[in-house]
Amino acid sequence: MTDNAKLILNGNDTVELPIYKATLGEPVIDIAPLATKGHFTYDPGFGLTAACPSTITYIDGNKGELLYRGYPIEQLAEKSDYLEVCYLLLNGELPNHTQKDTFVDQIKQHTLIHEQIRSFFNGFRRDAHPMAIMMGVVGALSSFYHSTLDIHNPEYRQTAAFRLIAKMPTIAAMCYKYSIGQPFVYPQNDLDYSADFLRMMFSVPAEPWKNSATLTRAIDKIFILHADHEQNASTSTVRMAGSSGANPFACIAAGIATLWGPAHGGANEAVLNMLDEIGDVKHIPRYIEKAKDKNDSFRLMGFGHRVYKNYDPRAKIMREVCHEVLAETGVGDTPLFKLAMALEKIALEDEYFIEKKLYPNVDFYSGITLSAMGIPVNMFTVIFALARTVGWTAHWIEMVSASNTKIARPRQLYLGSTQRDFVAMDKRPKA
Ligand code: SDX
Question: Is 391 in the pocket of ligand 1 (CB under 6 A)?
Fold first, then answer.
């Protein structure tokens, strides 16, 4: 703790507010002493509010830095793999050989889902958005593990983490197969996590399946880049839901619901829809003007970020992965990718985007990359949710295992009516 902040209320009442120093990044001002002073603080959207202490992920929005447990995302994307990053996010340290092998085996014990869950899918229309299906199916998992949902039991928390990380690829692939009317493909535990995900997505029983090492590495990197991101909207939702004592599957389903929004994880799908709408390089200036027009709700999808006021470090890596996938799949010179490159160049040279520090974020390139891998647009956020499940789970465990966790309960600035008496129908103003 460092020295206090001093607040003067009502002209003469000085309130001492403790300041806590962070390992990295901004110190925080503890406003607890305001409780006795009859004031709340006001921060709609919580953009300036540290909601919790955490040791999991650090973002420096001005420098464009992202660390998972202190390790730079660039190094993890280059040198690690997704399950190793899952171990790191959950346990705080990189695993040694034995720890990694044990962790991978523990995950593999949970890749199947209960056969009853297959019938859940039949309740959805074939054209249901896969995010709607994933949200429903993940929430329903809570009805299958009642006996091990005591969230205060560390072993149960760990098993819930294994189940969620292991089952998300199976469920995601099933969402896709259901939407195209193909048979579900069961997990195959002798394959690596990301290789088996692509097999469950794209193999069919009638044909032999051959994985592409390049596409497997690409999807594994995409999972790493999306694994966690501090207290973003969906993670904050998982923490909020978890603070009431809700079970982990319900909390993760709430996170999936939040991620779906186009301002958040739904942006990758929105980027592709936006590129389709722009259609041609010659239309870009008009859309840039629309994005700048305060009276127009259009936003340049894949640009801007609540925290990054510099290039999103994930976008740089995503751009490289995008090039690799486009080369591997032979769709490098598609009009879509050329349009995206032109849009990025024009936006980055535009005064408005420079002044407002609007750079491409991770979603700008992920959509193009996933599309080149043959993944349909409506599955992009499902992939994001699959990858982010470990981050949500790590934050849920960090919060639930903390001794001082209380139910989250923000207050408000009330601007409604003062108290008034009920008015009988015959006394009310006529329409
Ligand atoms: C993700 O939080 C996370 O960590 C999220 C995420 C994660 O990993 O969990 O990183 C994933 O959600 C990435 C963001 C994906 N969303 C999009 O790409 C959608 C397009 N982006 C915008 O909707 C927007 O940039 C937000 C929602 C991401 C942020 O919006 P803010 O909080 O308004 O951003 P800001 O305060 O920096 O905006 C500054 C100004 C504002 O104008 P003024 O009020 O100053 O006049 O820039 C404008 C904004 O209106 N602006 C844009 C813009 N983004 C911000 N103008 C045009 N196009 C945009 N994309």
Answer: no
Whole-model pTM over 0.70: yes
**363 included as an active-site residue:** yes
Rounded to whole angstroms, what are the CA distances from 191 to 85, 198, 200, 312, 316?
Answer: 18, 10, 11, 32, 29
Average pLDDT of the segment spanning 331-360:
87
* pLDDT of 95: 98
User: Is residue 333 over pLDDT 90?
Assistant: no
Residue 381: CB within 6 Å of ligand 1? no
pLDDT band at 2 (very low <50, low <70, confident <90, very high): low
Distance 306 CA to ligand 1 centre (A): 5
The amino acid occupying position 391 is G
Residue 264 bears catalytic tag? yes
State in Å, rounded, how far the first CA of the chain is from the last one.
60
- Nearest-atom number in ligand 1 for the CA of 308 is 37
Residue whose tokens read 């709408």: 277
**For residue 237, how far is the Cα from the chain centroid?**
11
Catalytic residue check, 226: no
Res 220: pLDDT: 98
